[in-house]
Amino acid sequence: MVFGVAGVPTNYKGKFAGVFPWLKQMGLNGFEIQCTYGFKVSDDRRDIIKNMAKNGFYFSMHAPYYINLGSLNAAVVGRSKSNMKEGIELAKELDVNRIIFHPGGGHENTAEGRKHAINQIVDAINEFTSQIDMGSVRLYPEIGGKTANLGSLDEIIEICSRCKYCYPCIDIAHLHAREIGSITTKQILLEKLTKIKNALPEKFKYIHFHAYTINYGDKGEIKHLKHGENMPDGRVGMPNLADFVDVLKEMKIDPWVISEALDTQEIGAKYMRDLYFNN
Ligand SMILES: [Zn+2]
After folding, report:
1. Cβ density class 250-259: b for 16+ within 10 Å, e for less
2. What is the average pLDDT score of the chain?
3. Quick one: pLDDT at residue 150?
4. 34 Cα–ligand 1 center, Å
């Protein structure tokens, strides 16, 4: 079971190496390396990451946001494919097995346009993964937070069904936001995860989660909320993370859970971790 944070939390002030003991004393053991501006990690950090991986920490890597395999612009898709290959090489060097990426956007937001984009993404992934040695690296297309983004639950399932190396990254906050507040009960969350389990029985045990609460509007995601923060209109921030932890226990899965709570990742991650182990 892995509970962790996305990047160095803003509440942590200090050197990079020190963030791991700081997380560990909270019971956290996961860290998603944020390659927001490119698949680059300095030599110093590489050594620290490799060392911490030997000491019980689990590392995943989040691809740059400019990667867009679903773009209508062929040059963007071409660059995104080479970027992904660079990311896979970096992941292998660091012994990181999970690369999270956004399927992208820019297509026409119609059933036809989306279908075309998903086919293009699947072809692109199957092309570049056949050109290199994947080692033990798995690719995780993530649920998109805005209604116009590619990466609905069905689209993530489809990509994972058609691409050998793809596994689901279920961002439950993005899912809630893109479906305009759909996850209102524990039962609904259980049904959604059961759907994934039934569709991807072999891959389900490697599922990756992002879990936190989110503010949304009629186009989906507006902003990640801080842990425990209400919506601007006063409603409680959702999805309910205690329900989420209950569902993990009921389904008897031990996935990776990364908190992306605004400026409070470690607090959100610790909250879920404590519920999981102490209840
Ligand atoms: Zn993401």
Report:
1. eeebebbbbb
2. 97
3. 96
4. 9
What separation in Å is there between the alpha carbon of 101 and the centre of ligand 1?
6
Q: How far is the CA of 201 from the centre of ligand 1 (A)?
A: 24
* Amino acid sitting at position 103: P
Largest Cα separation within the chain, whole Å, is: 51
User: How far, in Å, from the CA of 274 to the mean position of ligand 1?
Assistant: 24
- Cα 213 to averaged position of ligand 1 atoms, centre (Å): 14
| CATH number of domain containing 213 | 3.20.20.150
Phi, psi angles (nearest 5°) of residue 140: -120, 95
Domain carrying residue 79: 2-278
Number of structural domains the chain divides into: 1
Three-class HEC string of 30-41: EEEEECCCCCCC
18/22 Cα distance (integer angstroms): 6
User: What amino acid occupies position 214?
Assistant: I
Span from the CA of 39 to the centroid of ligand 1 (angstroms): 14
Ligand 1 centre distance from Cα of residue 145 (Å) = 9
Which amino acid belongs to residue 33? I
Phi, psi of 51 (to 5 degrees): -65, -45
- Tens of pLDDT, residue by residue over 76-87, are 999 999 999 999
Please state, in angstroms and as integers, the Cα–Cα distance from residue 136 to each residue in 91, 93, 162, following that order: 9, 11, 18
| Predicted TM-score of the model (pTM) | 0.97
Which three-class secondary structure state does DSSP give residue 210? Answer: strand
For residue 169, the CA-to-ligand 1 centroid distance in Å is 9
Which residue matches tokens 């290959």? 85
- Cβ 103 vs Cβ 149: under 8 Å: yes
